[in-house]
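Subject: Interface between my chains keeps coming out wrong

I've been trying for a while to get a sensible model of this assembly. When I model each chain on its own everything looks fine, but I need the whole thing in one frame so I can look at the contacts. Pasting all components below, labels as-is. Any help appreciated, I'm running out of ideas.
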Amino acid sequence: MSGEPGTGPGVGDRLPTEAPAGIPADALHRLRETGPGGAPLFTSDLSVNEFLLVEEAGFTPLGLVMGSSIYQIGLQTRRWSRSIELDKLTQAMYTARELAMTRMEEEADLLGADGVVGVRLDVNYYEWGKSTAEFIAIGTAVRAKDGSSWRNAEGKPFTSDLSGQDFWTLLQAGYAPLGLVLGTCVYHVAHRSLGSTLATTGRATELPNFTQALYDARERAMTRMEDEAQRLQAEGVVGVQLVEKSHMWGSHTIEFLAIGTGVRSLRPDHVVPPPVPVVSMDR
Amino acid sequence: MSPDEPAPPGGTAADHMRQALAVLATPARPQASTYVSDLLVGELVLLDEVGYEPVDLVAGAGSASWNPQIASGPGGSDAWASAITSAISTARSAIDREIRERSADGVVAVQLHMDRHPANVLTCTLLGTAIRRRAASRGASDHGPRRPFGTTLSARDFHLLVRAGYLPVGIVTGVAVVAFAARSLTQGLGLSRENRELTDQTAALYRAREIAMGRLDAEARAYDASGVVDVSFSEHPFNSVLVHAVELLAIGTAIRRGPDGHRPILPHLQLALDDPPPGVFTHG
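Reply #2:
Try treating it as a single job with all components included. I did that and got this:
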């Protein structure tokens, strides 16, 4: 354990010498050392459970891949009393994530990966950047042990935010992940007018404009996610999460983010051995 | 009943009982084979299952100090990163020493604590349970002194790895610091109200993250590892009038594949019949 960090040997020469746009030269250097032609060493943020299950599913982890983008989110004026989508902000949140994910996919490409599992999309804020945020995509690139191709309809490595456990189960059931699909919608929910606030004070009543606004925003985010899934020719989307967050905008501006993994069938039936029912005794 | 309390004279059955209780209440003298560990009972069994036994709690500490205000200057962020790296290395050497002193083979469930003190002093502590391969399960290939291994993995994960034909070789870290002069950042932002990527900042932070991962890889190579699992990332922002900086730390466990390669663990599908805890309508 007392070993000092040394510089690794083996610089591959099968990789391009120029990094694709947006990827730092240090990434190229790192991926070259572990990628095709280099000395194989995988790095992964998978837990031991996940790592063993990914191996069990017939894949070898190749390394951590990452994409990052610091994005200035523009300003858009909102009307106090009108519920409306803030398309400029939607655009910013979508583009920044796409930039980060594309860079991550390019890193995976450099490693010769078939896919990326356990993808996490994070948004970081730093004190020095008002209305700027860092968007990060990070995951573990994997390659099929049997040499078969797992690329998706766009010719890219598949991406998935499923855990190692879900990935194994998905493959057991005869499905394959195609890509991480997401849809987003930043929505300004109108403030209520003084008159209507006073009129309903102390009464239990539905606030239709709030209901309608949140309903509409969620629907838009989910429809956009479904559109992405259709572009990938996915049969369905699993593990969808619907995240609502106000980020730096205050309480009446909310981002609705729908995110999931598009899947396709590997075989016509999806029969798995019947699961053994268990009752745990430690709860 | 306090063990110091003298038993009353006489020989009744109650007195004998009191004497016996007093003996039980006296703390046992630690023997050479007594181990101390923070492992759960189940974890002890799992360690035993793959032929290891706990030895003792072991710890190591290191510290560092640097000047963050000059970090945006040439070489400033590298000096910062190497100060942190050296604090971690010192802690690692210290815990290694403790492992060797107890003739243990390695340490599991290591926690890394980074404590920050005024005047920019960082102390770094590693704490874990030293374990030893039981004499009965030592094979012919186990002869000779080996470098003690370390891992952030729990005893449970250690068990699973060993069963699948791997062995942890060491805790690996990668540290990088990205620092901006405070003025350059606000200038860059300007008064623009448009959506745009801040390319300079993106490049700097992205690069620093890659460097941290590259350093983690380099440490794993120094261990001659097959890979690194359970990597986690943490970041620590630093803001002052002069400098805005972010410290990035990646930490994971380097593992080596055994001579037989990956042994299938053949998991079964299970359906837990436990109801989830009631969670509906709990938000009020």
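Reply #3:
Confirming on my end. Chain B touches chain A through 78 residues (CB under 8 Å).
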